[in-house]
Amino acid sequence: MIECIGLGLSLGGRTILSNLKLTVSDGERIVVMGRSGAGKTTLLRLLAGLIAPSEGSIRVGGELATVAGKVRMEPSRRDIGFVFQAGALWPHMTVAQNVLYGLANLPRAEARRRMTEALDACKMGGLALRLPQQLSGGEQRRVALARAIAPHPRHLLMDEPLTSLDSDLRSELLQLVCEIVRSYATTLVYVTHDESEAHVIGGRRMRLENGYLVIEGSA
Ligand SMILES: Nc1ncnc2c1ncn2[C@@H]1O[C@H](COP(=O)(O)OP(=O)(O)OP(=O)(O)O)[C@@H](O)[C@H]1O
Ligand SMILES: [Mg+2]
Question: Is 159 in a helix, a strand, or coil?
Fold first, then answer.
């Protein structure tokens, strides 16, 4: 579970988020929409603990994770899988190594099994030994997705994860995300500009507007 209480953030003298309240329960799906520059990526970065807010606090799994001006629980301790808007694979690591990185705390055989399972699910099993620069944009996005889901995290934060994929692959991977959320009671916060993706993900729908999170109801 993730809870935001009165979150506010100003950057460069500009208010990006104001008095944001949000609770995402275990197994709940939230879709966040809003125009470019509305603060969607910034919100995910706050939830992950990559940045601290100017006001308010965040609890992750009941623990006080962030308070104004300070990240108390490091991103790596939050049991969060993050799919970054730009993919953000480690360029010097192969596809397999990128996915294994988040599985380092598991016994070797189990880590390899999870890596294979995640890459196969994302239709990337055949390219495990490639470097990111040897992949297309869509293939890189699929590796980023595999890397985020492989550890079966309690929370998944996804920032437009399926951009630049064709519609068949997109709907297959959307189903995969929904299945994972169901199987592991994962908390999902999913950012997209795409109505049809939002519809498939379902759950509660929100929009960021002028720094405020507007609740638009359930899909
Ligand atoms: N480090 C920073 N310093 C100052 N302003 C920033 C910083 N990071 C982001 N911003 C600004 O905060 C606003 C929100 O950015 P954010 O990346 O969260 O938008 P977004 O909703 O994800 O947009 P998009 O749909 O284009 O991805 C933007 O106006 C951006 O320019
Ligand atoms: Mg963004």
Answer: strand
Does 42 contact ligand 1 (Cβ within 6 A)? yes
Considering Cα of 119, then 191, then 166, then 202, what sign does the dihedral take? Answer: positive
| Cα–chain center distance at 99 | 15
Torsions phi, psi of 49, nearest 5?
90, 20
Is 90 exceeded by the pLDDT of residue 110? yes
The predicted pLDDT at position 218 comes to 67
Is 34's C-beta closer than 6 angstroms to any atom of ligand 1? yes
Domains within the chain, CATH numbers bracketed? 26-49+74-218 (3.40.50.300)
Tokens of 136: 């297309």
pTM for this predicted structure? 0.91
Q: Cα(30)–Cα(21) distance, rounded to whole angstroms?
A: 13
Over the stretch 168-179, which tens digit does the pLDDT of each residue have?
888 888 988 888
What's the distance, CA 33 to chain centroid? 14
151 neighbors 81 (Cβ within 8 angstroms): yes
Kindly list the strands in the beta sheet with 187-191, ordered across the sheet, starting from the edge strand earlier in the chain. Answer: 80-83, 155-159, 187-191, 29-33, 204-209, 212-218
- Which tokens sit at 12? 């460069």
Q: Report whether residue 69 contacts ligand 1, using a CB cutoff of 6 Å.
A: no
As a residue count, the chain comes to 219
- The span from the CA of 29 to the CA of 189, in Å, is 6
